[in-house]
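Because discrete structure vocabularies remain unfamiliar, we first show an illustrative case, written as a sequence plus integers encoding its fold.
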Amino acid sequence: MNSVVPYLIRAYCDWMENSNLTPYILVDCKKTGVVVPKGLAKEGKIILNIASSAVGGRSMTNESISFKARFNGASEKINVPCEAVLTIYAQENGEGMFFDSSGEAASKGKEKPNLSILD
């Protein structure tokens, strides 16, 4: 089954931009496939503004978010796999959503709940 995370990222991003808010993502730079400018991550994480007005050629697929942005005056190509996104939030009010950093594999190993019908 497909992960719900990419769909939620796109939905929150659309909602924020439609509400004149600025979408930011917190990225775990230690995940495979993350491409961000070297030296800008702090403690293995980076915060990126993904507003369509701040980046060029933004593409949000079920696998990743990619775009071009300027850092220290230089244009950089950014790629963030969706599983590396820890949170998406609006800069103006902090509203958004956290994602499970352990990934979906952790939830697949959980036992099904033991439910019973009560009369």
Remarks:
- The chain has a mean pLDDT of 89.
- The two ends are 35 Å apart (CA to CA).
- The chain has two helices and seven strands.
- The beta strands are 23-28, 45-49, 56-60, 64-71, 74-81, 85-90, 96-98.
